[in-house]
Request: fold
Amino acid sequence: MSDIPAPFALLAELTHRCPLSCPYCSNPLEMVRGAQELPTEIWADVFAQAASLGVLQLHLSGGEPAARRDLPELVAAARAAGLYVNLITSGIGLTPARLDALEAAGLDHVQLSLQGVNAQSADKIGGYKGGFERKMSVAGLIAERGLALTINAVMHRTNLDDLPRMIEMARELGARRIEIACVQFYGWALKNRAALQPSRAQVDQAKAIVAAARADPAERLVIDFVPPDYYADYPKACMGGGWGSTGLNIAPDGTVLPCHAAQTMTHLQFPNVQTMPLREIWYGSAAFNAYRGDDWMPEPCRSCPRKAVDHGGCRCQALALTGDAAATDPVCRKSPDRAKVDALLAEGESATEAEWTYRMSPV
Amino acid sequence: MSVPVLPRGVRLHDDRVRNCKVLLGPERALILDESGTAILSAVDGARSIEQIAADLAQRYSAPLEAVRPDVTNFLADLAKRRLVDLV
Reply:
Protein backbone atom coordinates (compact mmCIF):
# COMPACT_ATOMS: atom_id res chain seq x y z
CA MET A 1 0.00 0.00 0.00
CA SER A 2 2.72 2.43 0.95
CA ASP A 3 6.23 2.52 2.34
CA ILE A 4 4.94 3.80 5.68
CA PRO A 5 5.75 1.11 8.26
CA ALA A 6 3.21 -0.10 10.79
CA PRO A 7 3.68 1.36 14.28
CA PHE A 8 5.14 -0.76 17.09
CA ALA A 9 4.20 1.23 20.16
CA LEU A 10 1.34 3.26 21.55
CA LEU A 11 1.80 5.62 24.48
CA ALA A 12 -1.63 6.15 26.00
CA GLU A 13 -1.80 9.11 28.34
CA LEU A 14 -4.90 7.98 30.19
CA THR A 15 -5.09 11.11 32.31
CA HIS A 16 -3.08 14.22 33.06
CA ARG A 17 -4.13 14.11 36.71
CA CYS A 18 -1.23 13.26 39.00
CA PRO A 19 -0.44 13.56 42.71
CA LEU A 20 3.16 14.47 41.89
CA SER A 21 4.29 17.82 40.48
CA CYS A 22 7.70 17.04 38.96
CA PRO A 23 9.13 20.18 37.37
CA TYR A 24 10.20 18.19 34.26
CA CYS A 25 6.85 16.51 33.62
CA SER A 26 6.51 15.36 30.01
CA ASN A 27 2.88 16.42 29.88
CA PRO A 28 2.14 19.61 27.91
CA LEU A 29 1.90 22.94 29.72
CA GLU A 30 -1.80 23.02 28.78
CA MET A 31 -3.27 19.88 30.31
CA VAL A 32 -6.48 17.97 29.70
CA ARG A 33 -9.04 18.15 32.50
CA GLY A 34 -10.55 15.04 34.06
CA ALA A 35 -13.97 15.65 32.55
CA GLN A 36 -12.51 15.58 29.02
CA GLU A 37 -10.82 12.18 29.43
CA LEU A 38 -11.88 9.35 27.13
CA PRO A 39 -14.24 6.82 28.73
CA THR A 40 -13.30 3.15 29.20
CA GLU A 41 -15.10 1.88 26.09
CA ILE A 42 -13.39 4.31 23.72
CA TRP A 43 -9.96 3.43 25.10
CA ALA A 44 -10.81 -0.27 24.73
CA ASP A 45 -11.79 0.29 21.10
CA VAL A 46 -8.62 2.31 20.47
CA PHE A 47 -6.49 -0.55 21.85
CA ALA A 48 -8.18 -2.98 19.45
CA GLN A 49 -7.63 -0.58 16.55
CA ALA A 50 -3.99 -0.14 17.54
CA ALA A 51 -3.39 -3.90 17.65
CA SER A 52 -4.91 -4.41 14.20
CA LEU A 53 -2.69 -1.60 12.93
CA GLY A 54 0.40 -3.51 14.08
CA VAL A 55 1.05 -2.00 17.51
CA LEU A 56 2.70 -4.56 19.80
CA GLN A 57 3.48 -2.56 22.91
CA LEU A 58 1.09 -0.40 24.89
CA HIS A 59 2.46 2.00 27.47
CA LEU A 60 -0.22 3.14 29.90
CA SER A 61 0.94 6.47 31.15
CA GLY A 62 -0.33 9.79 32.44
CA GLY A 63 -0.24 11.90 34.54
CA GLU A 64 -0.65 9.04 36.95
CA PRO A 65 -2.54 6.21 35.22
CA ALA A 66 -3.55 4.77 38.61
CA ALA A 67 -5.72 7.89 38.99
CA ARG A 68 -8.08 6.13 36.56
CA ARG A 69 -10.47 3.91 38.53
CA ASP A 70 -10.99 1.73 35.45
CA LEU A 71 -7.27 0.90 35.10
CA PRO A 72 -7.70 -2.90 35.55
CA GLU A 73 -10.49 -2.91 32.93
CA LEU A 74 -8.25 -1.00 30.54
CA VAL A 75 -5.41 -3.48 31.08
CA ALA A 76 -7.78 -6.40 30.47
CA ALA A 77 -9.08 -4.78 27.26
CA ALA A 78 -5.54 -4.20 26.01
CA ARG A 79 -4.51 -7.79 26.73
CA ALA A 80 -7.65 -9.07 25.00
CA ALA A 81 -6.59 -7.03 21.97
CA GLY A 82 -3.22 -8.83 22.04
CA LEU A 83 -1.04 -5.98 23.29
CA TYR A 84 1.93 -6.16 25.66
CA VAL A 85 0.88 -3.91 28.52
CA ASN A 86 3.38 -1.75 30.36
CA LEU A 87 2.27 0.50 33.21
CA ILE A 88 4.29 3.69 33.65
CA THR A 89 3.54 4.83 37.17
CA SER A 90 4.68 6.86 40.13
CA GLY A 91 3.29 4.05 42.27
CA ILE A 92 1.02 6.41 44.17
CA GLY A 93 -2.45 4.86 44.29
CA LEU A 94 -1.28 1.27 43.79
CA THR A 95 -2.68 -0.58 46.80
CA PRO A 96 -2.28 -4.37 47.27
CA ALA A 97 -5.86 -4.87 46.06
CA ARG A 98 -5.33 -2.77 42.94
CA LEU A 99 -2.08 -4.55 42.12
CA ASP A 100 -3.89 -7.88 42.48
CA ALA A 101 -6.56 -6.66 40.07
CA LEU A 102 -3.95 -5.43 37.58
CA GLU A 103 -2.07 -8.70 37.78
CA ALA A 104 -5.29 -10.66 37.24
CA ALA A 105 -6.08 -8.44 34.25
CA GLY A 106 -2.80 -9.53 32.66
CA LEU A 107 -0.46 -6.60 33.23
CA ASP A 108 2.89 -7.53 31.68
CA HIS A 109 5.31 -5.05 33.20
CA VAL A 110 5.55 -2.15 35.63
CA GLN A 111 7.79 0.85 35.16
CA LEU A 112 8.08 2.59 38.53
CA SER A 113 9.52 6.09 38.63
CA LEU A 114 11.93 7.22 41.33
CA GLN A 115 12.63 10.93 41.64
CA GLY A 116 15.57 10.54 44.00
CA VAL A 117 17.49 8.09 46.18
CA ASN A 118 16.06 9.25 49.49
CA ALA A 119 12.91 10.90 50.81
CA GLN A 120 14.48 14.31 51.16
CA SER A 121 15.59 14.51 47.54
CA ALA A 122 12.73 12.56 45.91
CA ASP A 123 9.88 14.30 47.72
CA LYS A 124 11.30 17.74 46.98
CA ILE A 125 11.52 16.97 43.25
CA GLY A 126 8.12 15.28 43.13
CA GLY A 127 6.56 17.96 45.29
CA TYR A 128 4.79 15.24 47.25
CA LYS A 129 5.55 14.59 50.90
CA GLY A 130 5.66 10.92 51.80
CA GLY A 131 5.93 9.91 48.15
CA PHE A 132 9.30 8.19 48.46
CA GLU A 133 8.13 6.01 51.33
CA ARG A 134 5.01 5.01 49.39
CA LYS A 135 7.11 4.13 46.35
CA MET A 136 9.37 1.90 48.44
CA SER A 137 6.34 0.08 49.77
CA VAL A 138 4.82 -0.27 46.26
CA ALA A 139 8.13 -1.65 44.97
CA GLY A 140 7.90 -4.28 47.71
CA LEU A 141 4.35 -5.19 46.69
CA ILE A 142 5.46 -5.55 43.05
CA ALA A 143 8.38 -7.78 44.06
CA GLU A 144 6.13 -9.94 46.29
CA ARG A 145 3.93 -10.65 43.30
CA GLY A 146 6.87 -11.32 41.01
CA LEU A 147 5.71 -8.76 38.46
CA ALA A 148 8.39 -7.67 35.99
CA LEU A 149 9.77 -4.32 37.14
CA THR A 150 11.80 -1.51 35.60
CA ILE A 151 12.98 1.40 37.70
CA ASN A 152 12.59 4.62 35.79
CA ALA A 153 15.08 7.19 37.08
CA VAL A 154 14.79 10.70 35.72
CA MET A 155 18.11 12.43 36.27
CA HIS A 156 19.12 16.08 36.21
CA ARG A 157 21.46 18.50 37.91
CA THR A 158 20.20 17.99 41.45
CA ASN A 159 20.28 14.15 41.46
CA LEU A 160 22.72 13.03 38.75
CA ASP A 161 25.53 12.69 41.31
CA ASP A 162 23.39 10.04 43.08
CA LEU A 163 23.47 7.73 40.04
CA PRO A 164 25.54 4.91 41.64
CA ARG A 165 23.09 4.70 44.53
CA MET A 166 20.14 4.81 42.11
CA ILE A 167 21.50 1.79 40.21
CA GLU A 168 22.11 -0.02 43.50
CA MET A 169 18.53 0.70 44.58
CA ALA A 170 17.15 -0.74 41.35
CA ARG A 171 19.01 -3.98 42.17
CA GLU A 172 17.79 -3.99 45.78
CA LEU A 173 14.19 -3.46 44.70
CA GLY A 174 14.35 -6.52 42.44
CA ALA A 175 14.15 -4.70 39.12
CA ARG A 176 15.47 -6.50 36.04
CA ARG A 177 16.00 -3.24 34.24
CA ILE A 178 16.70 0.42 34.94
CA GLU A 179 15.98 3.24 32.58
CA ILE A 180 18.21 6.19 33.36
CA ALA A 181 16.72 9.11 31.48
CA CYS A 182 18.38 12.47 31.70
CA VAL A 183 15.79 15.22 31.44
CA GLN A 184 15.20 16.34 27.86
CA PHE A 185 14.09 19.92 27.59
CA TYR A 186 10.50 20.29 26.43
CA GLY A 187 7.43 21.79 28.04
CA TRP A 188 7.79 21.89 31.83
CA ALA A 189 11.45 20.89 31.71
CA LEU A 190 12.26 23.67 29.25
CA LYS A 191 10.55 26.11 31.59
CA ASN A 192 12.82 24.82 34.38
CA ARG A 193 15.92 24.27 32.27
CA ALA A 194 18.18 26.56 34.29
CA ALA A 195 17.54 24.54 37.46
CA LEU A 196 17.68 21.10 35.81
CA GLN A 197 20.51 21.22 33.32
CA PRO A 198 23.45 19.10 34.47
CA SER A 199 27.04 20.21 34.01
CA ARG A 200 29.30 18.58 31.44
CA ALA A 201 31.38 17.07 34.26
CA GLN A 202 28.25 15.47 35.74
CA VAL A 203 27.27 14.02 32.38
CA ASP A 204 30.75 12.63 31.68
CA GLN A 205 30.78 11.02 35.11
CA ALA A 206 27.34 9.48 34.55
CA LYS A 207 28.42 8.05 31.19
CA ALA A 208 31.50 6.48 32.82
CA ILE A 209 29.37 4.94 35.59
CA VAL A 210 26.93 3.44 33.07
CA ALA A 211 29.75 2.12 30.87
CA ALA A 212 31.45 0.47 33.86
CA ALA A 213 28.22 -1.16 35.05
CA ARG A 214 27.44 -2.47 31.57
CA ALA A 215 30.96 -3.87 31.19
CA ASP A 216 30.74 -5.74 34.51
CA PRO A 217 29.98 -9.40 33.73
CA ALA A 218 28.35 -9.77 37.15
CA GLU A 219 25.87 -6.98 36.44
CA ARG A 220 22.41 -8.54 36.06
CA LEU A 221 20.54 -5.28 35.52
CA VAL A 222 19.67 -4.19 31.99
CA ILE A 223 20.69 -0.54 31.84
CA ASP A 224 19.14 1.82 29.32
CA PHE A 225 20.64 5.28 29.38
CA VAL A 226 19.41 8.44 27.71
CA PRO A 227 22.05 11.19 27.96
CA PRO A 228 21.06 14.84 27.76
CA ASP A 229 21.25 15.71 24.09
CA TYR A 230 22.52 19.30 24.42
CA TYR A 231 26.05 17.94 24.96
CA ALA A 232 25.91 15.70 21.90
CA ASP A 233 27.44 16.52 18.51
CA TYR A 234 24.58 15.03 16.56
CA PRO A 235 20.88 15.04 17.35
CA LYS A 236 18.87 12.14 18.65
CA ALA A 237 16.67 10.48 16.04
CA CYS A 238 13.12 11.77 15.95
CA MET A 239 11.05 9.01 17.62
CA GLY A 240 13.84 6.47 17.11
CA GLY A 241 13.04 5.88 13.44
CA GLY A 242 11.62 9.21 12.31
CA TRP A 243 8.35 11.10 12.56
CA GLY A 244 5.34 8.79 12.25
CA SER A 245 7.52 5.69 11.83
CA THR A 246 7.49 3.63 15.00
CA GLY A 247 5.04 4.92 17.55
CA LEU A 248 2.17 7.18 18.40
CA ASN A 249 0.85 8.99 21.42
CA ILE A 250 -2.73 9.55 22.47
CA ALA A 251 -3.59 12.34 24.90
CA PRO A 252 -6.30 11.87 27.58
CA ASP A 253 -8.93 13.54 25.36
CA GLY A 254 -8.17 11.31 22.36
CA THR A 255 -5.88 13.66 20.44
CA VAL A 256 -3.37 11.57 18.49
CA LEU A 257 0.20 12.84 18.20
CA PRO A 258 3.36 11.42 16.62
CA CYS A 259 5.22 12.23 19.89
CA HIS A 260 4.18 13.29 23.38
CA ALA A 261 6.04 16.60 22.97
CA ALA A 262 4.24 17.49 19.73
CA GLN A 263 1.46 19.44 21.46
CA THR A 264 3.66 22.49 20.96
CA MET A 265 3.19 22.22 17.18
CA THR A 266 0.24 24.53 16.91
CA HIS A 267 0.68 24.80 13.12
CA LEU A 268 -0.44 21.16 12.79
CA GLN A 269 -3.96 19.88 13.33
CA PHE A 270 -3.81 16.67 15.32
CA PRO A 271 -6.71 14.29 14.71
CA ASN A 272 -8.83 12.74 17.45
CA VAL A 273 -9.74 9.06 17.82
CA GLN A 274 -13.33 10.11 18.43
CA THR A 275 -13.67 11.45 14.89
CA MET A 276 -11.18 9.47 12.78
CA PRO A 277 -10.10 5.80 12.71
CA LEU A 278 -6.59 5.23 14.00
CA ARG A 279 -5.53 3.63 10.69
CA GLU A 280 -6.51 6.74 8.74
CA ILE A 281 -4.74 8.96 11.29
CA TRP A 282 -1.53 6.91 11.01
CA TYR A 283 -1.40 6.55 7.23
CA GLY A 284 -3.40 9.45 5.91
CA SER A 285 -3.49 12.45 8.24
CA ALA A 286 -1.58 15.61 7.32
CA ALA A 287 -0.06 15.80 10.82
CA PHE A 288 1.47 12.31 10.63
CA ASN A 289 2.77 12.92 7.11
CA ALA A 290 4.21 16.37 7.88
CA TYR A 291 7.78 15.21 8.55
CA ARG A 292 7.88 11.76 7.02
CA GLY A 293 10.57 11.06 4.43
CA ASP A 294 12.96 13.86 3.55
CA ASP A 295 11.06 16.21 1.21
CA TRP A 296 10.50 18.61 4.11
CA MET A 297 14.18 18.74 5.07
CA PRO A 298 16.27 21.86 4.74
CA GLU A 299 20.03 21.84 4.23
CA PRO A 300 22.33 20.75 5.82
CA CYS A 301 20.05 17.73 6.48
CA ARG A 302 18.85 17.01 2.96
CA SER A 303 22.30 16.18 1.58
CA CYS A 304 23.66 14.79 4.85
CA PRO A 305 24.48 11.06 5.03
CA ARG A 306 23.26 11.06 8.65
CA LYS A 307 19.70 11.87 7.62
CA ALA A 308 18.93 8.14 7.49
CA VAL A 309 20.17 7.86 11.09
CA ASP A 310 18.65 10.86 12.84
CA HIS A 311 15.97 11.99 10.37
CA GLY A 312 16.97 15.61 10.90
CA GLY A 313 16.76 15.20 14.67
CA CYS A 314 13.93 16.21 16.93
CA ARG A 315 11.17 18.31 15.34
CA CYS A 316 9.85 19.45 18.71
CA GLN A 317 13.30 20.65 19.76
CA ALA A 318 13.78 22.48 16.45
CA LEU A 319 10.52 24.30 17.08
CA ALA A 320 11.30 25.04 20.73
CA LEU A 321 14.75 26.50 20.10
CA THR A 322 14.54 27.99 16.59
CA GLY A 323 10.83 28.70 16.19
CA ASP A 324 10.74 26.54 13.05
CA ALA A 325 9.64 22.90 13.33
CA ALA A 326 11.23 22.07 9.94
CA ALA A 327 14.67 23.42 10.89
CA THR A 328 17.67 21.17 11.50
CA ASP A 329 17.72 20.13 15.15
CA PRO A 330 19.96 22.83 16.70
CA VAL A 331 21.86 20.19 18.69
CA CYS A 332 23.56 19.18 15.42
CA ARG A 333 27.08 20.59 14.94
CA LYS A 334 26.11 21.32 11.33
CA SER A 335 23.03 23.34 12.30
CA PRO A 336 23.24 27.09 11.71
CA ASP A 337 21.51 27.41 15.11
CA ARG A 338 24.00 25.34 17.17
CA ALA A 339 25.14 28.57 18.87
CA LYS A 340 21.74 28.73 20.59
CA VAL A 341 22.38 25.40 22.32
CA ASP A 342 25.95 26.38 23.21
CA ALA A 343 24.66 29.59 24.78
CA LEU A 344 22.21 27.60 26.92
CA LEU A 345 25.02 25.27 27.99
CA ALA A 346 27.32 28.18 28.89
CA GLU A 347 24.51 29.74 30.91
CA GLY A 348 24.01 26.43 32.70
CA GLU A 349 27.68 26.07 33.66
CA SER A 350 27.72 29.47 35.33
CA ALA A 351 24.26 29.26 36.92
CA THR A 352 23.81 29.15 40.65
CA GLU A 353 20.94 27.30 42.32
CA ALA A 354 17.75 28.20 40.52
CA GLU A 355 14.19 27.78 41.73
CA TRP A 356 11.86 25.60 39.73
CA THR A 357 8.21 25.83 38.79
CA TYR A 358 6.23 22.76 39.75
CA ARG A 359 3.86 21.22 37.27
CA MET A 360 0.22 21.62 38.25
CA SER A 361 -2.38 18.88 38.09
CA PRO A 362 -5.64 19.51 36.22
CA VAL A 363 -8.90 18.77 38.01
CA MET B 1 22.32 -28.71 32.13
CA SER B 2 20.79 -25.27 32.00
CA VAL B 3 17.10 -24.95 31.27
CA PRO B 4 15.95 -21.81 29.50
CA VAL B 5 12.73 -20.19 30.67
CA LEU B 6 10.92 -17.03 29.69
CA PRO B 7 10.74 -14.83 32.80
CA ARG B 8 7.67 -12.85 33.87
CA GLY B 9 7.33 -9.87 31.58
CA VAL B 10 8.63 -11.69 28.49
CA ARG B 11 6.45 -13.63 26.07
CA LEU B 12 6.27 -14.97 22.58
CA HIS B 13 3.67 -13.19 20.46
CA ASP B 14 2.06 -14.16 17.18
CA ASP B 15 2.17 -10.98 15.08
CA ARG B 16 -0.62 -11.35 12.55
CA VAL B 17 0.07 -7.96 10.95
CA ARG B 18 3.72 -8.69 10.12
CA ASN B 19 3.18 -12.45 9.80
CA CYS B 20 5.89 -13.50 12.19
CA LYS B 21 6.61 -14.34 15.81
CA VAL B 22 7.88 -11.58 18.06
CA LEU B 23 9.52 -11.82 21.47
CA LEU B 24 8.02 -9.11 23.64
CA GLY B 25 9.68 -7.80 26.79
CA PRO B 26 10.13 -4.54 28.68
CA GLU B 27 10.64 -1.88 25.97
CA ARG B 28 11.75 -4.65 23.61
CA ALA B 29 10.15 -6.26 20.59
CA LEU B 30 12.39 -8.73 18.76
CA ILE B 31 11.13 -9.88 15.40
CA LEU B 32 12.16 -13.51 15.13
CA ASP B 33 13.39 -15.35 12.07
CA GLU B 34 12.55 -18.99 11.43
CA SER B 35 15.37 -20.30 13.57
CA GLY B 36 14.65 -17.95 16.49
CA THR B 37 10.99 -18.92 16.33
CA ALA B 38 11.82 -22.63 16.37
CA ILE B 39 14.15 -22.26 19.34
CA LEU B 40 11.85 -20.10 21.45
CA SER B 41 8.81 -22.22 20.64
CA ALA B 42 10.71 -25.12 22.19
CA VAL B 43 11.40 -23.20 25.40
CA ASP B 44 8.91 -24.67 27.87
CA GLY B 45 10.71 -24.34 31.17
CA ALA B 46 11.35 -28.11 31.27
CA ARG B 47 13.66 -28.92 28.38
CA SER B 48 17.36 -28.13 28.67
CA ILE B 49 19.36 -26.34 25.98
CA GLU B 50 20.89 -29.71 25.04
CA GLN B 51 17.46 -31.33 24.69
CA ILE B 52 16.13 -28.43 22.63
CA ALA B 53 19.14 -28.65 20.33
CA ALA B 54 18.64 -32.41 19.95
CA ASP B 55 14.92 -32.00 19.21
CA LEU B 56 15.57 -29.33 16.59
CA ALA B 57 18.38 -31.35 15.00
CA GLN B 58 16.03 -34.28 14.65
CA ARG B 59 13.12 -32.21 13.37
CA TYR B 60 15.21 -30.46 10.70
CA SER B 61 17.41 -33.51 9.95
CA ALA B 62 20.52 -31.48 10.76
CA PRO B 63 23.67 -32.62 12.58
CA LEU B 64 23.53 -31.87 16.32
CA GLU B 65 27.06 -30.39 16.15
CA ALA B 66 25.73 -27.72 13.75
CA VAL B 67 22.52 -26.98 15.66
CA ARG B 68 23.92 -26.92 19.20
CA PRO B 69 26.08 -23.77 18.89
CA ASP B 70 23.22 -21.84 17.22
CA VAL B 71 20.80 -22.72 20.00
CA THR B 72 23.36 -22.06 22.75
CA ASN B 73 24.50 -18.71 21.36
CA PHE B 74 20.99 -17.50 20.64
CA LEU B 75 19.76 -18.29 24.16
CA ALA B 76 22.94 -16.97 25.80
CA ASP B 77 22.50 -13.68 23.98
CA LEU B 78 18.88 -13.40 25.12
CA ALA B 79 19.92 -14.33 28.66
CA LYS B 80 22.45 -11.51 28.64
CA ARG B 81 19.65 -9.15 27.67
CA ARG B 82 17.52 -10.74 30.41
CA LEU B 83 14.85 -11.83 27.97
CA VAL B 84 15.53 -15.45 28.92
CA ASP B 85 16.53 -16.92 32.29
CA LEU B 86 18.82 -19.94 32.38
CA VAL B 87 17.99 -21.98 35.47
